[in-house]
Automatic annotation (TrEMBL):
This is EXOC6B isoform 9. It comes from the Eukaryota. It comes from Pan troglodytes.
């Protein structure tokens, strides 16, 4: 998924929340993350 297109399709607030979640996932063991937080 291209971040530019994602940001254009969503509000800045939602895109910022997605970035926060992505950073959280990157700093967490993926085995501990539930399917609802997996972004594909």
């Amino acid at each position: 998924m291209e971040r530019g297109k994602m940001a254009e399709a969503e509000s800045l607030e939602t895109a910022a929340e997605h970035e926060r979640i992505l950073r959280e996932i990157e700093s967490t063991d993926t085995a501990c993350i539930g399917p609802t937080l997996r972004i594909k």
